[in-house]
Amino acid sequence: MQGNSANNKIQFSKKTFVARSRNEAELMAKLELGSDFDPLSYKEIETGGFLGFFKTKKYQIIVETPSKKKIAERARQKNKLKTSSAENPTDDKKLQDMKNFISSYGKQPEAQKYRQTEEDVELLKKIFSGSTLSQKLQTATSQKINVSKPELEKYLQAPLKNSPINKIQIPEQNTDNNNINNPAFTKISTEITSIKEQIVKIKSAMKTIPQNNSSQNKQFDKFYNKLIDSDFPESLCRNFLENFEKTLNKIQLEDSAIYQKKLREYLIDHIYSREGVEINSAKKIALLGPTGVGKTTTVAKMAYHFKIDCDKKVRVLTLDTYKFGGITQLEDLCREMGVPFAACYDIEMFKKELCSEDFDITIIDTTGKNYSESKSLEEFRQYCDAVEDIEKYLVLSSDAKYSDMNKINSNFENFGVKGIIFTKCDLCEYFGSVVAFLVKSKNSIVYMTFGKKIDGDLKEAVPYKLVDGILK
Predict the structure, then answer these.
(1) Which of the residues in the chain have pLDDT under 70?
(2) Which fold has domain 272-471?
(3) By CB neighbour count within 10 A (0-12 exposed, 13-18 middle, 19+ buried), where does 304 fall?
(4) What is the value of pTM for the model shown?
(5) Do 388 and 350 form a contact (C-beta atoms < 8 A)?
């Protein structure tokens, strides 16, 4: 009855978690509640859909917190300790004797605390012969006065340079035949000198040993390998995790579930993002990037999104008049969507096309050249300077190397890039390089594209989905 009354005082609550799999649902519960919960039920459910179609299967777990099982286990441990004490009164007596000894130790007379035997005094005289302490011991012995323990500790615990060992002298001539002719005295002196040298070497070597973070033995290596396996670059990973661990306390460092939850939050906080492109009157957008990253297809996807999903008046201009078949491909796509299209072969034509204010948004497809060459950059800069108020977005392929992303970004860093669009995300299994690039460059991710379809493949970027993809 006592256990039941204790349970009645505890407030239990139920929580529901829904995810794509049962394991993921359990992980969500552990990230929020730790291990202090009991699973009550698992169920497969259907979510989303439209008019009864296109529903998605998901898994639901209902848990109760705090855990009744753990409460009962703690109660059993507590009762076990009480039973053990009752069954072993001898142990209690020993414990009480020890407490009495400790409490009475400070009340003993000074002479009783620090009394030295004659054998102790003789041994100290031999070891510390010639020192100031030896003279004190001889005086204490002759006068039957006890040498205080603090006095001994002052010498025994002093730094090496002030230690009584350094005061040991091996006299060249000594009238005391017991010392000069005693082989034991010579042997002790030699051994003490050797010990001094070893202590100096050990202290010197200890200064060069790096102090390891205790968490690195438990969680650091685990999550370091997890990030590396997700294509997070080694050049950034170790330093990033070390800075992250500085934000944790001891408990957070040692608990794997809490460590992962905090790392997830830390990564999300270091990813900048924008909820798509803000649309206002006569908005002009230019997509930048090298050949092969998917700029032309992304232009078509954005045109469809703004026209169909946002109900805006859209048109498309292209400066990419060099690529064979590029104009025809984009022109055909625009015709199917009912979006006005024009190709600009020089700066004057480009300026003339942009003078029109009849459109809510104009999307500009730029030339895909090798922008590591200064000539190509200068040519593109002339187009950008010809017309004001052009927002520029850098297009990168999500399956590119981390080093390549940084190189391309450095080529365009002086153009005032407002955000990043990642393409070919359906071909990328791990997003470690994407997350690392966003953390390092501090650029905002705006859109992600999937597949080759024009409709529905342009998605606004969600940072937590990127992070969950590398911590799964």
Answers:
(1) 1-9, 48-54, 80-185, 203-217, 280-282, 322-326, 357, 369-376
(2) Rossmann fold (3.40.50)
(3) buried
(4) 0.54
(5) no
